[in-house]
Automatic annotation (TrEMBL):
The lineage of its organism: Bacteria, Bacillati, Bacillota, Bacilli, Bacillales. It comes from the Bacteria. This is Transposase InsO family protein. InterPro entries: Integrase_cat-core, RNaseH-like_sf, RNaseH_sf, Transposase_IS3/IS150/IS904. Residues 1-102 form the Integrase catalytic domain.
Amino acid sequence: MKRAIQLTHSDQGWHYQMKPYQHALKEQGITQSMSRKGNCYDNAVMENFFGIMKSEFLYLNEFESVDHFKQELARYMDYYNSQAYQVKIKRHEPVQYRAHAQQVA
């Protein structure tokens, strides 16, 4: 399994813009992603994904530990990115859709 990129996404809240917060993320190897100022639409994709993830994964499972959660989350992310049929890509699996898009390009 590939090593996951650690990413945190937030709005433009003042606490997310503080240098100590940004430094703490960097020390942990976490990349910060932040919505653009005055534009709520770039956050919509993340909000949609987290809604799906919570309903398909988080609320349906119980986890024995943080490590167990991380392991299961990595499994879910692999499933979501490679096997889950998605309406926005004409009900193809993401792997099929990307392969088709590369052939057309």
